[in-house]
């Protein structure tokens, strides 16, 4: 029903407006009598064979929602009803910020892709904390943290530490985002020395908090082999719990969308089907050279159940959806879980 009826209608509207319309509709509909049980029966797959234990956490299934969809932790409970095994909120920054100018979200239907240059638009970490303190479900929540646009890279550590300490008691794991292409100079923090300093400092704070929380790093798909190998070295040295591969790409190679349209859209991170193969290759490289205790979450171009299986076969322990969720709807979650059970 989503692909045949709803999606054609929604895709006639501005993508960012559709996001808020659909999330409002999800929140409102689940308040109706019997809506929760109906939604669960349609999308939720519960089976002990789907459970995964990582980082000292028990995931009811390995399919999660990537950061960027529920930036401000407004839909955590509702998203759990759709069958996600975990939800990652953010990217959150210390201070609220509006993000980049609109329009900043674009569909490329011919490529089953999205270009976004949102720019870490969020209401600030403290607002998210207040919402998480009131949540009703026990779904696993990851906190994806970044820096404010106006914060120079030399002071970025302070922003990450602020978010880390604010979220510590309300999330189950952390993700350090230094790989978004939509905040000026942010990706420079992926360079070896700044990244090592950032992650080691966060781990030191992590130890001070009592029982440490899992700390993961989200990387860009545009790293070269030498940079990937630096990431592997740093992950081991900083004793990371895991790596998320990958964020959006700045590449525009191989698109079916006419070049004039791509140039008209301009800057931004590309996600969706064009990333499917490359993000899986990165997972495979990481798995080959990382020790087994550093776990991997695969994200990027999961548009069908087989794409998720491919990432797991390459070494991903968990997977995350974003663009596939937009194009395929919530049935993609159950399709992946049912495919896993059929193997």
Explain what the structure shows.
It is found in: Cell membrane; Membrane. Monomer. It comes from Pontibacter korlensis. The protein has 13 helices and 13 strands. With 343 residues, it is of the alpha/beta class. The protein has one domain: TIM Barrel. An eight-stranded parallel β-barrel has the order 3-4-7-8-9-10-12-13, surrounded by five helices. Strands 5-6-11 form a three-stranded antiparallel β-sheet, with no helix packed on it. Helix 6 runs parallel beside helix 7 and helix 11 packs across helix 13. The radius of gyration is 19 Å and the shape is globular.
In short:
This protein has about 350 residues and is an alpha/beta fold.
Summed over residues and divided by their number, the pLDDT gives a mean of 97
Overall number of strands: 13
State Rg: 19 Å
Share of residues in strands: 15-25%
For the sheet with most strands, the description reads: 8 strands, parallel, barrel
Helix content: 40-55%
Inertia-based shape: globular
Low-confidence stretches: none
What do we call the CATH homologous superfamily?
Aldolase class I
| Alpha-carbon distance between the two ends | 27 Å
Specify the number of helices.
13
* CATH architecture annotation name: Alpha-Beta Barrel
* Helix-and-strand structural type: alpha/beta
The CATH C-level class name? Alpha Beta
Which SSEs are present, and which pair or pack?
Layout: H1 2-10, H2 15-29, H3 35-43, E1 52-54, E2 57-59, E3 63-65, H4 76-81, E4 86-92, E5 105-108, E6 113-116, H5 125-133, E7 140-145, H6 156-167, E8 173-177, H7 192-208, E9 215-219, H8 225-237, E10 242-245, H9 259-265, E11 269-272, H10 276-289, E12 295-299, H11 305-314, E13 318-321, H12 323-328, H13 331-342
Parallel strand pairs: 3-4, 3-13, 4-7, 7-8, 8-9, 9-10, 10-12, 12-13
Antiparallel strand pairs: 1-2, 5-6, 6-11
Helix pairs in contact: 6-7, 7-8, 10-11, 11-13
GO molecular function, one term: dihydroorotate dehydrogenase (quinone) activity
Cofactor: FMN
Domain Dihydroorotate dehydrogenase catalytic: 50-341
């Amino acid at each position: 029903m989503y692909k045949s009826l709803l999606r054609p209608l929604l895709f006639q509207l501005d993508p960012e407006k559709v996001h808020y319309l659909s999330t409002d509709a999800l929140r409102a509909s689940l308040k109706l009598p019997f809506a929760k049980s109906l939604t669960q029966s349609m999308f939720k797959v519960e089976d002990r064979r789907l459970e995964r234990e990582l980082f000292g956490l028990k995931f009811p299934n390995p399919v999660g929602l990537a950061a960027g969809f529920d930036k401000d932790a407004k839909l955590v409970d509702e998203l759990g009803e759709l069958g996600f095994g975990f939800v990652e909120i953010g990217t959150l920054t210390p201070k609220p910020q509006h993000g980049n100018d609109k329009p900043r979200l674009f569909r490329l239907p011919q490529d089953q892709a999205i270009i976004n240059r949102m720019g870490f638009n969020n209401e600030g970490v403290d607002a998210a904390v207040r919402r998480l303190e009131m949540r009703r479900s026990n779904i696993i929540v990851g906190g994806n943290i970044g820096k404010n646009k106006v914060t120079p890279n030399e002071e970025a550590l302070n922003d990450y530490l602020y978010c880390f300490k604010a979220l510590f008691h309300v999330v189950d794991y952390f993700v350090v985002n230094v790989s978004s292409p939509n905040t000026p100079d942010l990706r420079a923090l992926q360079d070896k020395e700044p990244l090592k300093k950032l992650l080691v400092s966060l781990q030191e704070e992590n130890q001070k908090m009592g029982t440490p929380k899992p700390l993961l790093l989200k990387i860009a798909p545009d790293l070269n082999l030498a940079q990937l190998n630096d990431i592997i070295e740093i992950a081991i040295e900083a004793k990371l719990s895991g790596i998320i591969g990958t964020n959006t790409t700045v590449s525009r190679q191989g698109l079916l969308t006419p070049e004039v349209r791509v140039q008209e859209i301009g800057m931004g991170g590309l996600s969706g089907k064009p990333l499917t193969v490359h993000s899986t290759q990165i997972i495979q490289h990481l798995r080959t050279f990382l020790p087994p205790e550093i776990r991997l979450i695969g994200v990027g171009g999961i548009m069908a159940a087989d794409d998720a299986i491919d990432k797991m076969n390459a070494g991903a322990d968990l997977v995350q959806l974003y663009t596939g969720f937009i194009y395929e709807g919530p049935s993609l979650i159950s399709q992946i879980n049912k495919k896993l059970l059929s193997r």
